[in-house]
Design a protein that fits this description.
This protein is α/β, with parallel strands linked by helices and 396 residues long. It is built from 14 helices and 14 strands. The strands form three sheets. It has a seven-stranded mixed sheet. Strands 3, 4, 5, 6 and 7 form a five-stranded antiparallel sheet that branches. Helix 1 packs antiparallel against helix 6, helix 3 packs across helix 5 and helix 8 crosses helix 9. The protein is globular and about 75 Å long. It starts with 5 loop residues before the first strand and ends with a helix.
Length: 396
């Protein structure tokens, strides 16, 4: 008697062998259900806010807010942020909300990270322009991004329903094809590769983060690790380990979580030619210290390492924690020398045995202590498994 094919030791029913007749039925049902569910949950864009404090009267407040839509400020914002938007598109995406001395600027784009980066850069450039024009006679400071960051806005029911239906159709076909296979392929484990190299995983960040008033668990885990090591220095550099890694995701989470714990936190973004600096605070009534920077002309004369060293030296005594994010892999060793520790960022499932990964890790480890690695773009199952393992270790 011939036995049925198996998934490991589990027998596969005859119904799910090959490419069976029930495929059109299950695909239709999945497409119909998913189209209805996803049509009401698809966001058409994301909006991020930055708050600015002006110690002046109402007419001068309006004078400062008017700078946010001048052509010079818009062009510099696009240049420093590396955005592909046009000046007209950026101007259309900006919305100002004036309220006595504290007002906010909102930028809306199709991508959450882009909205946060654009509004932070825009606020910093506009305030710098205000200082240049008024010779600092109008005190204006960037307080920081509004918690919890970019938020989804609006929906387009017709487009969402169409896209959801198509996506669910192909999803049903994929599910049916997966059920008809005899054995699932082995799944590589980024954590196993990390263990072979002796690297410590600090947090597992999901591909999509839920929009809640509380910071995600991964942000708390990063803040715990950084807080425990602040006695060795205030500066933590977040650096991508490979070309398609994004260090800004864990860096933003860590900076917000540290600020939420009452620590005076400084954000330094080195991903563009002109560094972006933001002081973060969880209490609008208690703004962070004034960020000490340097003018645009001086920045052109310094190397990336020299700029970072100068910024850290100017601000170290005013802030409890300094979070630096870099997107460059060509001079990572020089940048790391200016920091007290490094957190490497990598996409979940990356190949830790690749030659370029080994070279980058060796250069960074020779320049500064590596606190650990933050893995991004993980599935919800992977995030839950990591959180359960971390909780178990803490209990032990």
């Amino acid at each position: 008697m011939v036995s049925s094919p198996t998934f490991s030791s589990v027998s596969v029913p005859r119904l799910f062998r090959g490419f069976p007749w029930w495929l059109p039925l299950i695909t239709t049902v999945i497409a119909a259900v998913a189209a209805g569910l996803l049509a009401g949950s698809t966001a058409s864009g994301y909006a991020a806010d930055a708050r600015i404090w002006v110690q002046t009267d109402t007419p001068r407040l309006e004078q400062v807010s008017a700078l946010f839509t001048t052509e010079k400020v818009l062009k510099r914002t696009l240049e420093f942020s590396g955005s592909e938007l046009s000046v007209e598109e950026l101007e259309a995406a900006i919305e100002l909300h004036l309220d006595d001395q504290l007002f906010s600027v909102t930028v809306t784009t199709a991508d959450a990270d882009e909205a946060e980066h654009l509004v932070a850069t825009l606020a910093q450039v506009a305030v710098q322009e205000c200082h240049d024009r008024s010779n600092s006679s109008i005190p204006a400071e960037v307080i920081g991004l509004s918690w919890p960051g970019a938020r989804p806005i609006g929906t387009n029911p017709a487009d969402a329903a169409s896209l959801s239906g198509v996506a669910a159709l192909f999803g049903g076909i994929g599910l049916a094809a997966a059920l008809s296979r005899r054995r699932d392929p082995p799944r590589s484990s980024a954590l196993a590769l990390l263990g072979r190299r002796g690297w410590r995983p600090l947090a597992m960040i999901g591909a999509r983060q839920a929009q809640t008033s509380e910071p995600p668990l991964s942000a708390k885990q990063l803040a715990d690790s950084i807080s425990a090591s602040l006695h060795g220095g205030a500066t933590t550099l977040f650096l991508p380990l490979h070309a398609d890694a994004d260090a800004s995701i864990p860096a933003l989470q860590a900076a917000r979580a540290l600020a939420g714990r009452g620590l005076r936190t400084l954000w330094i973004d080195l991903r563009n030619e002109q560094p972006v600096l933001l002081g973060l605070s969880s209490d609008p009534a208690n703004p962070p210290p004034t960020v000490q920077s340097f003018d645009f002309e001086l920045a052109q004369l310094l190397s990336r390492e020299e700029r970072l060293q100068l910024l850290i030296a100017e601000n170290r005594e005013h802030f409890d924690a300094i979070i630096v994010v870099s997107g460059a892999l060509d001079d990572d060793e020089a940048t790391a020398r200016a920091a007290d520790r490094v957190v490497l960022a990598a996409r979940d499932g990356f190949n830790a045995e690749a030659p370029e990964i080994t070279e980058t890790a060796a250069r960074v480890e020779s320049a500064a202590p590596v606190l650990g690695i933050a893995l991004t773009h993980a599935s919800s199952d992977r995030v839950d498994d990591f959180a359960a393992a971390a909780e178990s270790i803490d209990e032990d």
